């Protein structure tokens, strides 16, 4: 996925189902929404490093090739520590710490684009 494709992703998610209140609170941050949206469009597991670079490019409105490594490193740490673990704990994504691979779980099947969740 290139920078242009990443900008086409829906900007918001909502949850359908019994646990929608709990999961909606997990999805209130734009980084968590982007993680899930990006994984929904991926045809294979996504690497945390790649996700950090793409999100840094999107956040700073720059092409992926122009993202400073420090920026991506800082964002990778933030993603891992503040955003991935809650999604893993909620069984929305699976994260392999050894390989850095991210995948969606079946739990994420109830997540759909929406305007209902705020940043």
Automatic annotation (TrEMBL):
Lineage: Archaea, Methanobacteriati, Methanobacteriota, Stenosarchaea group, Halobacteria
Organism from which the protein derives: Haloterrigena gelatinilytica
Pfam family of the protein (one): DUF7344
UniProt-recorded name of the protein: DUF7344 domain-containing protein
Residues covered by the DUF7344 domain: 25-100
